[in-house]
Amino acid sequence: MIRTLLDGNRRFVAEVFDQDKAYFADLTRAQNPTVLWIGCSDSRVPVNTITQTKAGEVFVHRNVANIVATNDWNLSAVLEFSITHLHIPDIVVCGHYGCGGIRALDADPGADRYIPIWLINAQKAVTRVERRLEGELGEVDPETRHRLIVDENVRLQLEHLQEYPFVSAALKARQLRLHGWVYDMASGAIRVISSPDDLA
Ligand SMILES: [Zn+2]
Questions:
Q1: What is the average pLDDT value for the chain, to the nearest integer?
Q2: Is residue 7 domain-shared with residue 46, that is, in the same domain?
């Protein structure tokens, strides 16, 4: 597999990079991405492939279950750099159906030590969905339940984003918009769960 990556890079240089040298030369001077993508680490959700975007267009942070944790210095630094330095106007939190991280919320953690701690930041999504299942939704099949939790987790992480003072300030100043999306691996399509108007 490692050899495949290096072979792929050689093809990239020959077929993409060398065909558009001016574009890549511009990128060596500065980056001006207009979107911050907060997505899942899952190998099946590659942002540039599913959104057909190029190098330089999307600033990316990925972790298990596309979580925004305000005690995560990694994401905090990404956010600060995106908003304060790059002045990125749009943030997308993108979940996906079939998410192993979200499924793990319902599973026995076994010997895992770190994954359960990390997933505490998504636990509230399960609680909220369960409340809806006990109320207006009634009983649903396991896959529907999973999809509801994936959707709810995106909403929850958008809420977490707004706990950052510089995020809420940029929102108030209308310099920033938040978007909640879910990628459906079965169709390749992205569903919009939450748009900036919902958060206004
Ligand atoms: Zn996932």
A1: 96
A2: no
